Amino acid sequence: MSPLSATVSHTAALARLGHALSDSTRVGVLLALREAPAYPSDLADALGVSRQVMSNQLACLRGCGLVEVIPDGRRSEYRLADPHLAPALSEMLQVTLLVEPDCCDGEGCSCA
What we know:
Layout: H1 8-20, H2 24-35, H3 40-47, H4 51-63, E1 67-72, E2 75-80, H5 85-93
Antiparallel strand pairs: 1-2
Helix pairs in contact: 2-5, 3-4
């Protein structure tokens, strides 16, 4: 595929991924699920957030198509929705960005 042949669906998928990666809790969830499926309560405890916050973040990640629910009796477990996502996240962890100190504070970019 040539660099110019990205489709609208590719662009939308990357935009959803970018949205998901814009929040540190969602990033933590994706990185945790890269290792293994998990229950929301375990994710909340591991990331130090309330269960309500975790519920909201998982709903966002579901809406973005990045995670899916696995029914497990009365509980629900979550996993990454696509097997390509785990290696993609691992590859992104290898990227080194040189950030201008006055531009981004880690919580958002003031360059806009």
